Amino acid sequence: MHSHSGPSINRRALLIGGTALAASASLVRAGRAAPAEPNVVELTAAAGRVPIVGAPYPRTDVWCYGDRVPGPEIRVRQGERVRVIVRNDLPEETTVHWHGIRVPNSMDGVPGLTQPPIKPGESFTYEFTPPDAGTFWYHPHSDSLRQLGRGMAGAFIVEEPTAVSVDRDLVWMLSDWRLTSEAQIAAGFGNAMEAAMSGRVGNTVTLNGAVPDEVPMRAGERIRLRLVNTSLARIMSLRFEGHRPVIVAIDGQPCDPHEPERGRILLGPAMRVDLVIDMQGEPGRRYRVIDDFYEGLSYWLAKFVYEDKPPLRAHHLEPSPSLPRNPLPEPDLAAAERHELRLQGGMMGGGMMGMGGMQGMSHGASWAINGTSMTGDGHANMPPLLTLRLGRSYVLTIRNETAWWHPMHLHGYSFRVLTRNGTAVPHRRWADTVLVPPRDTVEVAFVADNPGDWMMHCHVTNHQVSGMMTVLRVA
């Protein structure tokens, strides 16, 4: 049974004033972030005010990159080196984590563990060459709960060397907010009861920084739709009325093209899914995109609105082609070393009362992995749970012993998702964040080819900062 601890939402994901008001979301493909010189991007983290809800509500006070939510979209070609200069104009320390990109450890953005935090008024330069094409994103890894929850996130798109044949390439940055009746971000980020349950689920969902409404479409066109869930805790289950989306990539990694099970795209926090959709609706009609993950709390996220024009092309296109594979090393399953990670704690299942006997518990911990909790966002001298040998293959069995869902993210790597509850996972799926339902067991495999100390944690941010985090050392 799905659980939901935040306020309910209606079709436009807004109950803050009792009336849902829409603001148009910009869905056109954005160009590359304007660099100061070729391959150089400048980002400034600072306070800002943005029109999340729209008139007559006031602008929302946020923290953001480049005075906008989401932050500037960064686009580079696969294998193209990028330098990102991040200036911190916030009143506290920050860092930037390049989620899903297989960067060198010193560029991973974990304060204390991989770099010194960026102090107010200071800058830090990240420089790396993305090895994989795909849909990635960036966000803070310092005071993650507040900084991400206040709006600090942006898309990082790595384009294939040869352009994919679609009519439009769209990015949907999906975010979840808890707003007051004045459209301001509600307090209470550190709620301990909430942290021990489903996390901080909000009452307002935005698409590309605004409460969405209608998305213009042309019959007959083929779109690539990149979905990115930047929420602190909200899990989404999206279905597209009257359409048959094809999944072509998960977490930036190409998979065998396939239609989603039961027509629903399951998207936990931090996860990404690339879809190819042939727009075969009727000219002049509207079709809803519905999120119905939480039982009894279904709402429509947006509507495809077809122009009243003849179809762009008179015939159906060939099936969606496979995207070119990225240069991921294939794990040797026969020779792989195996380890088990047990996810523990939380309310309603070996919960907070049952956590008292676990080792390594610190103040404020509600969760643990293999009996040990690491709280916060990362710090110097975090002891590794496992030490992995460089170049060796590994299989991790992730066993969820709790009553809650956990999107488990491994920094610095993509892994092959092998099995779920003993059944092979189809479609050659790779990921960097795997959603593990209550009491489920998932097996993943990878080659430990990227040296360093790497965080692994639940991307329900409340869970991460209250204990469900560990370090894997590759040496």
Automatic annotation (TrEMBL):
Residues 1-22 form the signal peptide. Keywords: Metal-binding, Oxidoreductase, Signal. Transmembrane segments: none annotated. One of its GO terms (cellular component) is outer membrane-bounded periplasmic space. CDD domains: CuRO_1_CumA_like, CuRO_2_CumA_like, CuRO_3_CumA_like. Residues 58-161, 169-287, 375-474 form the Plastocyanin-like domain. GO terms for molecular function: copper ion binding; oxidoreductase activity. This is Copper oxidase. InterPro entries: Cu-oxidase-like_N, Cu-oxidase_2nd, Cu-oxidase_C, Cu-oxidase_fam, Cu_oxidase_CS, Cu_oxidase_Cu_BS, Cupredoxin, TAT_signal. The keyword Iron does not apply.
